[in-house]
UniProtKB/TrEMBL annotation:
Top EC category: oxidoreductase
Any GO BP annotation: 2-oxoglutarate metabolic process
Protein name, entry field: Dihydrolipoyl dehydrogenase
Organism whose genome encodes this protein: Dethiosulfatarculus sandiegensis
Cofactor: FAD
Cofactor annotation remark: Binds 1 FAD per subunit.
Binding-site positions, FAD: 48, 300, 306-309
Classification via Pfam families: Pyr_redox_2 (PF07992), Pyr_redox_dim (PF02852)
A GO molecular function held by the record: dihydrolipoyl dehydrogenase (NADH) activity
Top-level taxon in the UniProt lineage: Bacteria
Organism placement in taxonomy: Bacteria, Pseudomonadati, Thermodesulfobacteriota, Desulfarculia, Desulfarculales
Further comment: The active site is a redox-active disulfide bond.
Amino acid sequence: MFDVMVIGGGPGGYAAAIRASQLGGKVALIEQDRLGGTCVHKGCIPSKVWLHTAGLMKQIKEAKAFGLDLEPPRPDLAAVKARKDGVGNDIAMGMAGLLSNNQVEFMQGRAKFIGAGQAEVDGREVKAKAVILAMGSSLDIPDLPGLEDVVITSDQVMDMDEVPESVLIFGQVGPIEAELACLLNGFGCKVTVAAEQGRILPNEEADTSQRLTQGLRDQGVDFLPRHTLESLESNKDGCVACLKGPKEEVRVEVQRVLSAFRRPNSQGLEEVGVDLGPGKEVLVDEYLQTSLQGVYAIGDLTGGTMLSHASSFMAIPAAENAMGRKTKFNPRLVPRVLWTIPQVAAVGLSEDQAEDQGYDVEIGEFPYSINGLAMSLNQMAGSVRIVADSKYGEILGMHIVGAGATENIGEGVLAMQLECTANELARGLRPHPTFSETVVDAARDVGGWALYLPRG
């Protein structure tokens, strides 16, 4: 009998197993495939390897602006794939070592959850006092006639031997789709984005969406807002995508159509008493407990923001609660990040969301265009935008577009976790020249005393 059984060996399940063991629990971690899951082998890590190479090629192409006359770069896809695989393998090996170091019993096999405290692993029954479900999500390819002949999935992009000449990205264009648009475009693919809604990243601030759209458009990505994919007509080079727009139908000839939609791996859970939501996500309370006593769920399985760090963050309270504590999970502290060019990062509420919740808000904003480091590196596209409560100065949200955004958003996360006011953040010191100075300048603008902005 284990104290805690964790099903799923991705970043969330792995972190939960270690945390439960740290608290003195006898822990089993069950994974049917490789440790690290989608994040390490098909998602977060592989995409960053590909995106970094794309970014390096962009820098080389722009080197003349910095006094360097270089030949155009020629990517070696086999070498990129080998590096991607090597990084993933190294991370997985490190995870295995840490599980062993923490006395977590690792079981390789397919687990079937059969009820509170029980699972079958390749026919063997495993019991535990508490269970943490961390089975992640899987690709969900739409049922559209002709799509199976031309589809390229996000998994396939990570293992591509050749870059498609052209790709259509359709539907609700969120973080995964935006990153893949940047990645494919960076390797010379002609990318067309047909967003069903009026803009990409519909859950982020409109300003964020507009800045990223413009950045990608400047790099050659085409956008068709409010266009819905109606049908596909096959031809010898791929297909013709028929898109219904607000005024007329548009026909776009492409070689491939990208599908990166995902669904929670919740199959079979409802039959054993786990309540699911409309998207088949597992429903949890503020302690991450499901409808079954002693059964917790984390990560992609719970829907919402399908991000690896969200799963790892959820793992800590889930493990602590499985071991008898009462730790709440605060979803507002989960940052959303994109390694696009320019980078995008956000945490907390947008201006509209804050107003909808009854806050009287103040906004502070500072552009990258007058930041010294951004000017030096010719990375002046972007801004930092802070949403604050006017009554107490509480920081409700931070939204960054620009170089270094994925690192600097940590300032917003920490400020919100510590319930820091905009004025307190504004009086902090940052080294010069750095992108981090833009955060302080935006916080000062909340109070109307930004030093490096002209008076309005």
